[in-house]
Automatic annotation (TrEMBL):
Any one GO CC term of the record: cytosol
Catalysed reaction, written as an equation: GTP + 4 H2O = 2,5-diamino-6-hydroxy-4-(5-phosphoribosylamino)-pyrimidine + formate + 2 phosphate + 3 H(+)
InterPro entries hit by this protein: GTP_cyclohydro_II (IPR032677), RibA (IPR000926), RibA-like_sf (IPR036144)
EC number: 3.5.4.25
GO terms, biological process: riboflavin biosynthetic process
Keyword Nucleotide-binding: yes
Protein's name in the database: GTP cyclohydrolase II
Native source organism of the sequence: Rothia amarae
Family matches, as Pfam families: GTP_cyclohydro2
Keywords associated with the record: GTP-binding, Hydrolase, Lyase, Magnesium, Manganese, Nucleotide-binding, Riboflavin biosynthesis
Organism classification: Bacteria, Bacillati, Actinomycetota, Actinomycetes, Micrococcales
GO MF annotation: an example: 3,4-dihydroxy-2-butanone-4-phosphate synthase activity
Keyword Manganese among record annotations: yes
Length: 240
């Protein structure tokens, strides 16, 4: 064990606590294709499951298609696994840059982190609205405009605050050989969900973004009610 390994514990669940799960059936995967983007070059693969769900994985590479990586420091991917961002689809934030949430900025920052230090991003479709879908998410936005917060707006619809299922994500991680990762996330529940699916987590890398007046209350709710590891915001109030 070297000096870096001594400083970090790789977390894994007690095997007795593993959730008994039905393994989602992966029915197709694309070849890995190099795609140049505004965020750098990525090797992308598409994944399809028997229920019709499709997801994307992106590996950060250089212009020649060689995987980016860091070695010989405290984040060495050979010791601790690569940095991995599991990003839940958010059409409003990721595509249109909505300021109601932090998703678009987190996506850009996550891609920047993996370009800097190597790693992967799994773009999980069917996770839209923390798993409730677009119609229910926009219903939730409407309820939030009437004063409910992001948690209560789900509950008021008879939905869980977070309905995301990470089983397909875990299948993709395993297929990519990523069973030990440094998770890019501020959400301890996401880490716990992956641990329970047998993914080993060697640390959390923050994907916190600078709050805006428009998403101050949303981020405070995530911090206070959903236990996200976020700095208390200094903004006074959301603007519409
Ligand atoms: N139901 C609901 N979903 C939202 C709302 N705002 C954003 N989302 C969804 O929230 C999901 C992202 O979850 P977040 O709670 O922002 O972050 P996280 O993925 O749990 O944690 P991080 O890894 O730190 O980003 C995306 O699927 C968004 O579509 C909202 O007000 N209501």
């Amino acid at each position: 064990m070297n000096e870096y390994q001594q400083t970090r514990k790789i977390e894994q669940p007690d095997s007795k606590e593993l959730t008994p799960v039905v393994k989602p059936r992966l029915i197709a995967q694309s070849p890995a294709v190099c795609v140049p983007t505004a965020h750098g070059h990525f090797k992308m693969m598409a994944w399809q499951f028997a229920d019709g769900s499709e997801h994307l994985s992106l590996q950060a590479v250089d212009a020649e298609g060689n995987p980016r990586t860091v070695s010989g420091d405290k984040n060495d991917a050979r010791l601790f696994g690569p940095a991995v961002r599991i990003h839940s689809e958010c059409a409003t934030g990721d595509i249109f840059g909505s300021f109601r949430c932090d998703c678009g900025a987190q996506l850009a920052q996550g891609l920047r982190i993996i370009q800097e230090r190597g790693g992967y991003l799994i773009y999980v479709r069917q996770h839209e609205g923390r798993g409730i879908g677009l119609v229910n998410k926009l219903r939730a936005y409407s309820l939030q405009s009437e004063g409910l917060d992001t948690v209560d707006a789900n509950l008021a619809q008879g939905l869980a605050a977070d309905q995301r299922d990470y089983r397909q994500t875990a299948v993709i991680l395993r297929a990519l050989g990523l069973d030990t990762i440094q998770l890019i996330s501020n959400n301890p529940a996401k880490k716990q969900a992956l641990l329970e699916l047998g993914i080993r987590i060697s640390g959390l890398i923050s994907d916190e973004i600078e709050p805006r007046p428009e998403n101050h209350t949303y981020l405070e709710t995530k911090r206070e009610r959903m236990n996200h590891l976020l700095t208390p915001s200094h903004h006074q109030k959301d603007t519409p």
